[in-house]
Amino acid sequence: MTESGGQEQSRWITTVIMSTALQNHEISTILQRQQHRVRYSESVEIGSVIFSLSGVAFILSDTQELLMTGEEQFSKRIQNFINIHRNSFLVLSAALHGPEEWNVMFRIQRRFLGSNLRVIPVHNTAETVKLMLTIAKVTSKPQADDTRYKIAMAKAQIIENSPVWKMLQDYQLHCN
């Protein structure tokens, strides 16, 4: 449990479906340590991490590995992945994102421009887990509804306390 702004928040725990290829991966260990329910499946794309309750899916890839295996084969995997998952993210990992890595990222983005794929560069496993959990949490139904409510309340408060809004109301009263 953490405290933020005087309000106590409960930990967000969800079910994660991962490809069996990631069973012994550090990401799996971190998610399990954080009490998330991790399930493995052979029927999902290799390197996939799916947050079904949030409706988001991630496919993990190492940039150097991608350079060695070839982009065409990788592109077929990505195309299959985005055909299945509506909210899809490609997480490209590299210790350092130099010109070669940025060039690979640019080519992938250009190839899948207009699709539902978002490309996210990361440097390490901890960063990968943090970004996946953040995206999954904000897109989960209760959290998204809560965020919409907070935005609506803030908007109402801004309008209610706006001097421009008060001036327009006064102007309308004088015109009638």
Secondary-structure blueprint of this entry?
Blueprint: E1 2-4, E2 7-9, E3 15-19, H1 26-33, E4 37-41, E5 48-51, E6 56-62, H2 63-69, H3 71-84, E7 88-93, H4 99-111, E8 117-122, H5 125-139, H6 141-160, H7 163-175
Parallel strand pairs: 3-4, 6-7, 7-8
Antiparallel strand pairs: 1-2, 3-5, 5-6
Helix pairs in contact: 1-5
Q: What does this 3D model show about the protein?
A:
With 176 residues, the chain is an alpha/beta fold. The protein is 51% helix and 22% strand. The strands form two sheets. The protein has a six-stranded mixed sheet with strand order 4-3-5-6-7-8, with helices on both faces. It has a two-stranded antiparallel ribbon with strand order 1-2. Strand 3, helix 1 and strand 4 form a beta-alpha-beta unit. Helix 1 crosses helix 5. The N terminus is likely disordered.
In short:
The protein has 176 residues and is of the alpha/beta class.
Low-confidence stretches are 1-8
Rg (CA only): 22 Å
Helix- and strand-based class?
alpha/beta
Give helix % range.
Answer: 40-55%
End-to-end distance, in Å?
55 Å
Give the integer mean of the pLDDT values. Answer: 84
Major beta-sheet overview: 6 strands, mixed
Order of strands in the sheet with most strands: 4-3-5-6-7-8
Oligomer status? single chain
Total beta strands: 8
Considering the chains and any ligands shown, give keywords for the structure.
8 strands, about 50% helix, elongated, alpha/beta, single chain, two-stranded antiparallel sheet, about 180 residues, six-stranded mixed β-sheet
